[in-house]
């Protein structure tokens, strides 16, 4: 594929398209060398090398452990404005099943979510902004570690990210294989759900499977809890409020001891919600229902509820602005301004709790494409110049240079 096949308007896209081969080479190198959260040493090194070649004004390392921040100053700074752009850098603990030349060289690690592409797009934006500087203010380019369950955004914030770089707003985007290349999706509210971890420990009384009446079977209790908790969403949460409860793993007993009833069982799962009120409701009902079900069988149950990532909520003005920028590049028919939110989670949510901003989805696939976290997924290099141009457009339109 070639960037010329995308119908994109604007000088930024045309400019960036000239160095797409370099961005593609960087993206594929990162894909071949995946690293988990807070272990992105090679990735950060490659990013720093690329940023220095781009000619950015400042490069800061070690923010939030392995995070990198670049600063590009516009042709003028009379506005005093500062705008942030964020890309995530980490990979996933999964085995890749692709066979192309740039497949993962690390067994059990893979860029299965496209963070290699996100990083390359932001490097592309950095190069364009440093070469043109057609804006009035300061662009802050945030290369974040540990998005995949490590709360790297929170780590960067706690490490003084926004004290050192006091942006007025911050933006991020994520590739979306279910959308065609050359399209963007966004809305003015929730884009991604809160992700919580639930651990339910059931304590009964072990015994012999042939004499179950002398035991209190925690496996039976677990089975009833698995079924009962699904009533929380269907019978407690309002239908217009989104929520998902999934109990995804169970541990009890020894598979080799087929006639031994264990004394304990553990269930582990996730809860996804969009509002704090629904989140609190689900947590309360889980505690009440699990305890009551267990008590009915003469067992006990405890619920450990961990709030991992908050919901990713766009601020309305910034979401509308980002959609306008996307529309200027792609046209009205290629920007979905009322995109349905996803029950997936994203730790850019921590940044949006501190600063106004917006999270966009960038089409990269279409019908039949592998979805994220699939062992045969790969980022579509065709959209590299579009993502970079969209990043750059947020800076140029957000901090316009005006008339000389």
Automatic annotation (TrEMBL):
Domain Peptidase M20 dimerisation: 197-279
Keyword Translocase tagged: no
Keyword Hydrolase attributed: yes
Keywords from the named record: Hydrolase
Database matches in InterPro entries: Amidohydrolase, Bact_exopeptidase_dim_dom, Peptidase_M20, Peptidase_M20_dimer
Source organism superkingdom: Bacteria
Database matches in Pfam families: M20_dimer, Peptidase_M20
Listed NCBIfam families: amidohydrolases
Protein name: M20 aminoacylase family protein
Taxonomic source organism: Hydrogenophaga defluvii
